[in-house]
Recover the amino acids of this structure.
């Protein structure tokens, strides 16, 4: 049985014991409702670190007042099974009182620029809550490495930036999104979907695949890639777009064109029934050589050459 500890003192003691035996420490922060995507994070962490802490904490400060904090799935028994599949050493499952003893904080972490666009514009205060709780967890556990899913692309950028700006002595690693057979990105919120909504939700990954295929076939205009994303999602009447954007994969700033030295990412937030789902895909790299060749290609292509 994996030990489950609920207090900051206990998890610190547990990590101290591991370190006194010379072990390296990894952290996988989660909000529970674990699925195969989390198991991959835990496995990746286990491959790199001797001692793996999984935190399970539904963090109230990253939910807006009308969001799903109270109905967010809490499935501790099933989570324990998933944690043991992945090779967890100890689970840290604090109460809200343990993390926020006075009910609120006076100190918060903000990552302006990255935090207030896209997901941050739709969910004001969300990344402040995420960055602050992640910093608290990193301070409590003191891991050498910490693992996050690439499905939450913007969250990963925010955390990497915070760690770099604050010289945190931890390596932040991202792990690729795990998908269902029809392409739907695994997410704890997929549990909100009824059977018909579940089928409709495959439209997100379908739209991303079309965007990637268009760039592979030579599309360079981010406006047209955005239109491809929107048309595909709008073809599904159960889906309502929150945003469908193409942005610089490092800064998340808007881009006019795919290519140059900057990698582009397509990012989606879409409501399907009661669930708000997010997904993303890096668009294929377009080298300078490809772009020069395209610019030199005469109208009508090279067929007549
Ligand atoms: O991605 C999540 O599950 C949460 O945002 C995190 C990183 C555990 C912080 O609460």
């Amino acid at each position: 049985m994996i030990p489950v500890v609920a207090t900051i003192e206990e998890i610190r003691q547990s990590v101290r014991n591991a370190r006194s035996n010379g072990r390296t420490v990894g952290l996988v922060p989660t909000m529970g409702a674990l699925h195969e995507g989390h198991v991959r994070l835990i496995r990746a962490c286990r491959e790199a670190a001797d001692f793996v802490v999984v935190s399970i904490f539904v963090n109230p400060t990253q939910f807006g007042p009308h969001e799903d904090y109270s109905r967010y799935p809490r499935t501790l028994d099933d989570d324990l099974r998933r944690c043991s599949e992945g090779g967890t050493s100890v689970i840290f499952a604090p109460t809200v009182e343990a993390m926020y003893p006075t009910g609120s904080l006076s100190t918060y972490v903000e990552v302006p620029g990255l935090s207030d666009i896209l997901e941050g514009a739709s969910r004001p205060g969300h990344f402040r809550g995420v960055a602050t709780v992640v910093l608290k967890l990193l301070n409590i556990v003191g891991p050498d490495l910490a693992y996050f899913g690439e499905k939450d692309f913007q969250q990963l950028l925010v955390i990497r930036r915070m760690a770099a700006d604050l010289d945190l002595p931890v390596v932040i690693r991202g792990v690729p999104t795990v998908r269902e057979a029809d392409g739907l990105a695994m997410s704890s919120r997929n549990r909100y979907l009824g059977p018909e909504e579940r089928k409709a939700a495959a439209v997100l990954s379908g739209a991303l695949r079309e965007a990637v295929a268009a760039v592979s076939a030579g599309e360079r205009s981010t406006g047209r890639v955005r239109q491809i994303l929107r048309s595909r999602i709008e073809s599904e009447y159960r889906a309502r777009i929150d945003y469908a954007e193409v942005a610089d994969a490092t800064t998340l700033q808007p881009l006019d064109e795919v290519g140059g030295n900057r990698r582009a990412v397509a990012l989606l937030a879409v409501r399907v029934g009661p669930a708000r789902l997010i997904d993303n895909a890096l668009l294929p790299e377009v080298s300078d050589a490809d772009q020069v060749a395209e610019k030199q290609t005469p109208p009508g292509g090279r067929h007549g050459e």
About this structure: Residues 188-284 form a domain with the Pantoate--beta-alanine Ligase; Chain: A,domain 2 fold (CATH 3.30.1300.10). The beta strands are 4-5, 25-30, 51-56, 90-92, 145-149, 171-175, 239-248, 264-272, 275-282.
